[in-house]
Amino acid sequence: MNGKTVTELTDVLYPFGSAFSKTDWATLACFWHPAAESEEVANKPFGTVLLDIRVVVYRSGGKVSAALDICPHRGAQLSNGEMVDGNLQCPYHGLRYDGSGVCTRIPAQKPDAPIPSHMRLTTFDTVERFGIIWVNIMGAENQLAPLPDWSLLEENNTQSARVPTETWNVNAARHAENFNDISHLAFVHETTFGDVPYEVPDYSLEIEENTMRHYYVDGGSSMTFDRRLTRKGERRVPEVYDKVDYEYRFTFPFASSLHITDPDGRCVSIYDVIQPISVKKSRIFKHSARNYNQDQPMDDLVEFEVEVNKEDREVIEPALPVHVPLDPKEEYHIRADRWSIAYRRKLSKYGMGLDVDRVVPD
Ligand code: FES
Ligand code: FE
Q1: Is the CB of 93 under 6 A from ligand 1?
Q2: How far does the centroid of ligand 1 lie from the alpha carbon of residue 81, in Å?
Q3: In this structure, are residues 58 and 68 in contact, taking their beta carbons and an 8 Å threshold?
Q4: Strand ranges (DSSP E) for 175-301?
Q5: In this structure, which residue's CA is closest to atom 4 in ligand 1?
Q6: pLDDT for residue 230
Q7: Mutate to test the pocket of ligand 1, among 74, 80, 87, 106 (most ligand atoms within 8 A of CB)
Q8: Ligand nearest to the CA of 185
Q9: Would you state the pLDDT for residue 157?
């Protein structure tokens, strides 16, 4: 972006007072993060916060753009402005910027007065995919990982629905670990999932350059595939299966998916990605999908996922320390934690935890 190196951009953009260390911030700024749902960015600019910096997302000339949400003239918040003729107009003195951030109009000057070429916004690379607008602060050329491969969501035989986004007072890595943690299910999700065995099956774990996958086969029931809450007074007698496939796919730093497949090939999937707003604030983007019951509404699944979120949130929001400790000595580990141990190790390898006096595990 703008031909600057990651170090130069970090010096310019690293936000004053951020609770991210400078190297953690610079590392995370090299990944793609969700910044908005597609529908949130229509004919008005959309303001959000990513890694403690204000970002404005807007549509111009058929493409989606993102920029620092600070007008370079006198610092006004651009997302409080409006779109005029495909240009983002600042609410303060009406300067306008096109989709590439270039200033196209200064109302206080004569219309034919030249506009200096340096008058432009600090823009960020964007990609619109899976109903989400993704932003990479450091630019695609500095990306540390591609977008997650959620192409299954786009297949014809898949029906999907968005779960309403939620903003939690939680660190993004804590949430990612929670999604991929199998041993909490029996305790946190007793109400939604029903009886889940305490003992965690011996899952396989594969670690690739930017992704991880863990997988196991276990029992399951038709309630898993119904994914609907038991109504008051309802007695449900689920059909029980011996063998259900549970496959978790993860893309660094915060994108997870879980695919549960029964012996007949029915598959229900949950996709989850986190916008790191600050060290302790995250916005959760979640989709639910299935390849069966195509003609039925997805309301039950969405309602179910909202309830699942509530259960997780109660437990992980108060967890301390706020960040995920990268020094393995800082928390106890059990065998079921192999995924999170590998996750933390990999975050260290990406360069996180280097300037906060944490030991880098090997
Ligand atoms: Fe934006 Fe002046 S601050 S136009
Ligand atoms: Fe959970």
Answers
A1: yes
A2: 10
A3: no
A4: 204-207, 211-221, 240-251, 255-261, 267-278, 281-290
A5: 93
A6: 76
A7: 74
A8: 2
A9: 82
Ligand 1 close to Cβ of residue 35 (< 6 A): no
Please provide the average confidence, as pLDDT, over all residues in the chain.
92
pLDDT of 21 over the 50 cut: yes
Residue 65, H or E segment: strand 63-68
CB of 333 within 6 A of ligand 1: the answer is no
Ligand nearest to the CA of 305: 2
Q: 200 C-alpha to center of ligand 2: Å?
A: 14
pTM of the model: 0.94
**What integer pLDDT is reported at residue 242 of this predicted model?**
82
Q: What is the mean pLDDT of residues 111-138?
A: 96
CA pair distance 89, 95, nearest whole angstrom = 6
SS3 7: helix
With cut-offs at 50, 70 and 90, classify the pLDDT of residue 338. very high
Q: Does residue 66 line the site of ligand 1, with CB under 6 A?
A: no
DSSP assignment of 104-168: EE-TTS-TTS---TT-B--EEEEEEETTEEEEETT-GGG-SS-----GGGGSTT-EEEEEEEEEE
Give me ligand 1 centre to Cα 77, in Å.
9
Q: Could you give the CA distance from residue 61 to residue 76 in angstroms, rounded to a whole number?
A: 23
* Contact call for residues 24 and 13 (beta carbons, < 8 A): no
Distance CA 311, CA 218 (A): 23
36-50, 94-108, 150-164, 219-233: segment of lowest average pLDDT: 219-233
Q: Which residues contact 71 (CB under 8 A, 6 or more apart)?
A: 77, 78, 90, 92, 95
CB of residue 74 inside a 6 A radius of ligand 1: yes
